Amino acid sequence: MTQQRNPQNDRRRFLKITSATAGSFLILGTKASGGIKGANDRVRIAVAGLNGRGQSHLSGWMGSENTEVAYAIDPDDKVLARGLKGIESRTTGSFNTRGVADFREALDDPSLDAISVATPNHWHSLITIRAAQAGKHVYVEKPMSHDVVEGRVAVEAQKKYGVVVQHGTQRRSDAGIAGLHEALKSGKLPRLKIAYGYCCKPRGGIGNKEVGTPPPNLNWEMWKGPAVIDQYHGNYHPYNWHWFWETGNGDLNNQGTHQLDVARWAIDDDQTHPVRAMAIGGRFQWDDQGETPNTMFAMAEYPNGQMVFFNVRNVNYKGYKNQVYNEYYLEDGSVITGEGRYKILRPGAKAPEDLKLEKGQVTPGGNWKSFIAAVRANDPKMANGNALDAHYGCVLGHLMNNSYRLGHEVPFSAEAGQFGDNEDAQTHFNKLHEVMRDGVGVPESAKYTVGPMLNFDPETERHTGDHADQANVLLKDPNNPEFQIPTVSEL
């Protein structure tokens, strides 16, 4: 009888081989155009988007051995010039980085190995898809997708062209988090009931900017790319695009993507998408131009009954409690807290105790160097946070956001939540409501937006049942003609 292969054992064996051969070469390959690279072969990468997170990308790649930033890409002339100056100041030897406004120029270069995407969200999937079609590996910031449909196309593009796609969710490179999740799924710990993520960091309002003409240094058509936006105003560029639905996904799928991804990572491996999701929240404290909620409680249920809860609280007040982490509620009543190193509060215990766990399996090197290692090996399996995992985590957030977008207003009260018989959801929503009422001082005259419970078919990635027609419209954003997201059949 042929012995059945264990993929986890294969991965452990491969990681041992790659560690032993660091400084030599790696020996796995796929359909990507670059082929296997020896350790002495320079990895040439393009960075798209040079503001904010793009600067972290530049530092990450320039801090990786024998890696060259071949292209710097940005539609803002001033940002591009500043980015090139910064790259030159950190370059030893000859400076050869090309600055371009259009990512397609970089993809046309046959000597380019990879592209690193730090653009606004509405660009993430399209660049990933086009790069895969060009045989380039992709490191793409979170969220990989701006909507559900384009995320699926990105997954299928990775499959078809065999390139490495790694999601910018750095916690996927944390062996401590991986170890906890392996323990939850192996039975070493009681079964997971609720994976809970928090994105509660202080933010202020963005004010109101008048509609006007884009500044001369900004190539507006290239900046908006696939996003259908009728008029320019100054809150789109450079950062506040996060808070508009055409370009961003709110903090739920901004900073929150990290905690959403960790929460979904903890769910049993045979689960893909949730079958139900809903959200309640609002944009409180600020009187500004933004559209996305700065306060949200959301829930999603998977076919096996496990749940993800999520909490967004991006306001500011005296005594604000910063919470950007994950919690794990187990079926025996235990609660696990921490990140990478954990404590567990067991039922009946007076205080939490340290939770000693073995490290889990990740590609070593952190998020930057693990990607370079995967590119050198030409092996998508080495990605810490691959395209499919990225899709599952992003869709979780998209469904929650879509519920909110279809919501109706109700009075600001603890009774606003519509969670059916889910007492856990009501309890956790009540905690958020108390903070907003007593800490922020939201008045009773305010309104919550309560989204419907949306049913979702994980196989077809379509909504079913009540509200399905309206919800399915939100699965795919409209695109401008020059920057259409292709269908799967067009790949």
TrEMBL record:
- What is this enzyme's EC? 1.1.1.292
A Pfam family this chain is assigned to: GFO_IDH_MocA
Q: Start and end of every Gfo/Idh/MocA-like oxidoreductase N-terminal domain?
A: 43-168
Q: Out of the domains of life, which is the source? A: Bacteria
- Domain (GFO/IDH/MocA-like oxidoreductase) spans 233-324
Alphabetized, the UniProt keywords read:
Oxidoreductase
The record's listing under InterPro entries reads: Gfo/Idh/MocA-like_OxRdtase_N (IPR000683), Gfo/Idh/MocA_oxidrdct_glycsds (IPR050463), GFO_IDH_MocA-like_dom (IPR055170), NAD(P)-bd_dom_sf (IPR036291), TAT_signal (IPR006311)
Q: What class of enzyme is it?
A: oxidoreductase
GO MF term set: 1,5-anhydro-D-fructose reductase (1,5-anhydro-D-mannitol-forming) activity; nucleotide binding
Family matches, as PANTHER family: BCDNA.GH03377 (PTHR43818), OXIDOREDUCTASE FAMILY PROTEIN (PTHR43818:SF5)
Q: What name is this protein filed under?
A: 1,5-anhydro-D-fructose reductase
Source organism (scientific name):
Neorhodopirellula pilleata
